[in-house]
Amino acid sequence: MAAAPASSPYLPRPPHRPLPLASLCLGLLLGLGSALAQAADPYLARNLAATCANCHGTDGRAQPGSALDSLAGQNQAQLLQKLAGFRDGSRPATIMQQIVKGYSPQQLELITAYLAAQKREEKP
What domain range includes position 91? Predict the structure, then answer.
């Protein structure tokens, strides 16, 4: 009896696993694309920090007489430490615990670097 041809549907074949490899490649490309998009947008930090303006003023400069801190010109490491306290609940606040959870650590780095680079408002 002759051997079955190699393309016979009756011969066991090793399972193909293109899906895990394709998933890995897709994940890497998406992650790289996101990183490149952030690096390519020169206004990303400013745009992320714009949400802080609702309470802390434009570019982190609170309105005179405001009960909230001006963030402009503050030390970046201290700002990050405060945000970490809001995130883990060790620093009391009314809404900051929820707001800070909406940002990735990389986004918080960008926001705090932007705010730290802003000039403080001179007090009259």
Answer: 43-117
